[in-house]
Amino acid sequence: GTEGAGTDRPTPHGILKSLFGHETFRGQQEEIIRHVWQGGDAVVFAPTGGGKSLCYQVPGLLRPGMAIVVSPLIALMRDQVEALRQLGVRAAAYNSDLGEAEVQALRRAMLAGEIDLLYAAPERVALPSFVAFLQRMPIALIAIDEAHCVSQWGHDFRPEYLKLGELAESFPGVPRLALTATADPQTQRDLVHRLRLDDARIFISSFDRPNIRFSIEVKDNPKRQLLGFLQREHHGDSGIVYCLSRRKVEETAEWLAGQGLRALPYHAGMPTAVRQANQDAFLKEEGLVLVATIAFGMGIDKPDVRFVAHLDLPSSIEAYMQEAGRAGRDGLPANAILFYGLADMALRRRMIDDSGSPDEIKRVERAKLSALLGICETAECRRNALLRHFGEHREGPCGNCDTCLSPVESYDGTVPAQKALSAVYRTGQRFGIGHLIDLLQGSDSDKIRQWHHDRLPTFGVGRDLDKTEWQSVFRQLVARGALEVDHDAYGALRLAGEARAILKGEMKLMLRHDRRRKAGRAARPAA
Ligand code: ADP
Ligand code: ZN
Prior knowledge:
- It is an enzyme of class 5 (isomerase).
- By secondary structure, this protein is of the alpha/beta class.
- The protein has helices at residues 12-18, 29-37, 53-62, 74-86, 100-111, 122-125, 128-134, 167-170, 185-194, 222-233, 246-258, 272-284, 317-324, 342-353, 359-376, 382-389, 402-405, 414-426, 433-441, 446-450, 467-479, 499-503, and strands at residues 42-45, 66-70, 91-94, 117-120, 139-144, 176-180, 201-204, 212-218, 239-242, 263-266, 289-292, 307-310, 334-340, 410-412, 483-486, 492-495, 510-512.
- Residues 381-383, 397-398, 401, 403-404 line the site of zinc ion (ZN).
């Protein structure tokens, strides 16, 4: 400041405007910033794109001393630090990228008070020697980004986060804030407790992204469905297509390019230079479709992504909201569309079973998966169903999701469900969906004759529904846990959960009628 004028003492608004070039704060930013500026602890739950970074950057600059920002990904750190330096902020990243000489130079700068924002990985901040070093200088605040990583309920548990709770004792009186875009109530409680932020003020923003239209479609011919969606709604737009595997990323990008779209692949198995070039092209050019694994996205700041499409099922609702949330950060209309089928459910289940995680975590992951499947199969407003998972209760249909825009009919599916379950039971729970449908429809296949299944009472009792309708019934039974796919036995279905109650007629089952969109001549069931 100059000559005691007092008027140009730094203020949150001053920094927002002069440094970051924004006119006004968004949502709860100003409240959070003032609270931390005054020395309070805070926990911030806000969706991706909600502007969480400013919540620690601004008070970090306002308070005396160096602010520490704990961030889990080196690439993300690098980008943030680079962007801050462009703005003239004295920011640095303390990570394994640095050579010995650079480390020494950075340590000298830190001790000399020449660094305002220091980014570091959680495993670094957990080191007693590093903590001891930080204790030699004034600390403005400690921000813990992606704080859901501390919880096993979060979709991205990282054990090194568990140590971060100890920072409460190592730096008494230093305000701490934890930030995350993941906030189902269980993760919220867990995070607050484990980071010892029980006395912190909690700021929860709505996770609603009203400008994003959510749609979920059953896979029939996914590439054609995707192409149709792009041609109908997103001519010349930028967007992201997520696939589960690297191979599928490459195939899909190639196929889209063959259809005349500008599409590029992105996954962790590509040469770094190519991957970086594709990311840069996506960020800079208009009208580019990036086909990616979930390796792409964390920390990516492209406001005009007009759509996010998932060709495979994500792992959880939280993961889905985070990935879909990369659409429409500029507030303009955007689409999030998800394609899924029975095979996806089975694959996700297998990934959990084969993960090698402790049983306790597998249980959590199975519960998360079934919550997502519940959203896929719901006949109610998708937005309401999604938000309820984050503890938010909206009244009335949103008017901007697929189920609101073209309501789904549901029907009393108790009898078809009983037929399907009894087909599974009578054949010894050893057969996959194709054979079971043959049995229900009374088809004269070799396999039916070989197993004498034409002698079963279930043979032919399901001629009233066609193949696609039966697939839908089976899928919905798997989604609600009444059937399980046994992947050790080539996709054989087994009774589970409510199956017995349904068979005994103890419960009524409402099922949804799948909407069917013509996917072109080559349409062929995929499940
Ligand atoms: P999050 O970390 O919550 O995902 P970011 O901090 O990356 O969100 O912010 C998302 C985008 O919103 C960035 O492009 C950022 O520059 C912009 N932004 C944040 N706060 C404001 C604001 N008050 N005014 C204008 N733009 C903002
Ligand atoms: Zn809706």
